[in-house]
Amino acid sequence: SADLVYTVKEDGVYADIIFENTGNYHLLPKITFGLNRITPQQVTDEGLIIPEKVESLIQEEISSTNPVLPGTKRIFSIFIPIVLEESQYELLARCDYGKTPIVLRKSFQMEGRNGE
């Protein structure tokens, strides 16, 4: 199992994926983090519909040479140094560990300057 927690600060996004090995075998997970900016669908004054746009801002991979032992947890951390503009964002984490990957998504909205 896995969970994604994050904090947005003025200097960027701090994110952790907490991976728990609930099986009986040692695992070597590979974690991929991504940050997308989402521009929602818009309708102009003339009635033109502009579809939703997803812009990939960053994608980063983390892997470990030390296995996660059965019954233990490992925290994989990343810092994304970015000043976020007012917009909607989606933080993604994919955990590949040998079975069906775990995909986690967290959406958040930045309002005003640097979230203020």
Please outline what is shown here.
It is built from no helices and nine strands. It has strands at 2-9, 12-20, 30-39, 42-43, 49-50, 53-63, 73-80, 87-96, 102-110.
Could you characterize what this model shows?
With 116 residues, this protein is an all-beta fold. The protein has one domain: Immunoglobulins (Immunoglobulin-like, Sandwich), CATH 2.60.40.10. Helix content is 0%, strand content 59%. It contains no helices and nine strands. The chain has strands at residues 2-9, 12-20, 30-39, 42-43, 49-50, 53-63, 73-80, 87-96, 102-110. The strands form three sheets. The chain has a four-stranded antiparallel β-sheet with strand order 6-3-8-9, with no helix packed on it. β1 and β2 form a beta hairpin. The model has no long low-confidence stretch (mean pLDDT 90).
